[in-house]
Design a protein that fits this description.
Structural class: alpha/beta
InterPro entries: RNase_HII, RNase_HII/HIII, RNase_HII/HIII_dom, RNaseH-like_sf, RNaseH_sf
CATH superfamily: Ribonuclease H-like superfamily/Ribonuclease H
EC number: 3.1.26.4
Binding site for a divalent metal cation: 26-27, 125
Catalytic activity: Endonucleolytic cleavage to 5'-phosphomonoester
Order of helices and strands: HEEHEHHEHEHHHHH
Number of helices: 10
Oligomer: single chain
CATH class: Alpha Beta
Number of strands: 5
Family: Belongs to the RNase HII family.
Strand order of the largest sheet: 3-2-1-4-5
Shape: globular
Radius of gyration: 17 Å
Mean pLDDT: 94
Low-confidence stretches: none
């Protein structure tokens, strides 16, 4: 795996172009067969000129390092939030609409923290804007392929979202340990699939996904 340190280059460019702040956005749990999908958001502005040591895309960090980074990230950003869509919502709406719903909930949390969301730019990891169809508002959404690797605000969002979702899956493991969620976090490992075969699905499973898994 190529390890890349993210920068604030794109965020600085957007702020220099007139945005008062940038909201980095990243999703976690999209490919899981159990548990919620999560969208994390992290807000930076012109005062952010350096990056916390060790900050990277959450997929490039060990569980221990991610967990240790969360309080560092939360004290570094202006605001952060994680929105969730439940397994049943993923089943009922489909994954893209569920991602939009989770993002909408994260934005609502930022609004509750006093952020004037419409003033800034939302910087979304990937090539597909799943925010705008759900929000139905003229927010300035920009997509960035490999943004979680290259952009510090998105990397921060990915870390916060990943640890938040993992914590929820570990709590689910304590309730139904047969599926091994402490280790697989709801993804379709061999052991996880075998547990479903033996015990059937649990309430945390995305039932429509099991039909094609």
């Amino acid at each position: 795996m190529v390890v890349c340190d993210p920068t604030l280059d794109l965020e600085t460019e957007l702020i220099g172009g007139g945005a008062p702040f940038v909201i980095g956005c990243d999703e976690v749990g999209r490919g899981a067969i159990a548990g919620p999908v999560a969208v994390g958001m992290a807000v930076v502005d012109a005062t952010h000129v350096s990056i916390p040591e060790g900050l990277r895309d959450s997929k490039m960090l060990s569980e221990k390092k991610r967990t240790a980074l969360v309080p560092v990230v939360e004290s570094w950003v202006l605001h952060s939030a994680v929105g969730l869509a439940s397994p049943s919502e993923v089943d009922d709406l489909g994954i893209i609409a569920a991602l939009g719903l989770a993002a909408k909930r994260a934005l609502a949390l930022l609004h509750e923290q006093g952020l004037a969301i419409a003033s800034g730019v939302l910087l979304l990891d990937g090539s597909h804007d799943y925010l705008t169809p759900t929000l139905r508002s003229p927010l300035d959404v920009r997509t960035r392929v490999k943004g979680d690797r290259d952009c510090a605000s998105i990397a921060a969002a990915s870390v916060v979202a990943k640890v938040h979702r993992d914590t929820l899956m570990i709590a689910e493991h304590e309730l139904t340990p047969a599926y091994g969620w402490r280790s697989n976090k709801g993804y379709g490992s061999v052991e996880h699939m075998e547990a479903i075969r033996l015990s059937g699905p649990a309430s945390a499973h995305r039932l429509t996904w099991l039909k094609t898994a």
